[in-house]
């Protein structure tokens, strides 16, 4: 049977120019789940660090534009683009002029 959580049941934290909402984890669903997901809404011109805690992660751009920086590499982000990541030393999402919203989904480390 599906487990459904509404937005008011999810935990959101605020950072400098962004919000982070935990969307999926074992804690949220009360059962072991093989993934976790977080939603970041980044204000125009702001930057958010995105720590990849699993073995690999996918970043999906919901709306807006920006740049994903991982080590020395920079990748443009636009709506509906997808970036596949292995755990880098550091990853940052820099929002463009209109801000950016991304969903980060990852499998936990083995």
How would you explain this protein's 3D organization?
The chain is mainly β and 110 residues long. The protein has one domain (7-107): Jelly Rolls (Sandwich), CATH 2.60.120.10. 4% of the residues lie in helices and 56% in strands. The protein has one helix and eight strands; from the N terminus they run ββαββββββ. The longest helix has 4 residues, at 26-29. It is globular.
List keywords for this structure.
56% strand, 1 helix, single chain, 110 residues, 4% helix, Jelly Rolls
Could you say what the CATH architecture is? Answer: Sandwich
**Share of helical residues:** under 10%
Helix and strand composition category: mainly beta
State the CATH superfamily name. Jelly Rolls
Mean pLDDT: 86
């Amino acid at each position: 049977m599906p487990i459904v959580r509404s937005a008011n049941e999810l935990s959101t934290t605020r950072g400098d120019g962004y919000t982070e909402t935990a969307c999926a984890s074992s804690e949220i669903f009360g059962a072991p789940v093989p993934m976790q997901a977080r939603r970041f809404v980044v204000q125009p011109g702001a930057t958010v660090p995105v720590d990849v805690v699993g073995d690999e992660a996918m970043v999906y751009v919901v709306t807006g534009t920006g740049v994903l920086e991982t080590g020395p590499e920079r990748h443009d982000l636009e709506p509906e683009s997808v970036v596949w990541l292995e755990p880098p030393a550091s990853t940052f999402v820099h929002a463009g002029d209109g801000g950016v919203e991304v969903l980060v989904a990852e499998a936990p480390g083995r």
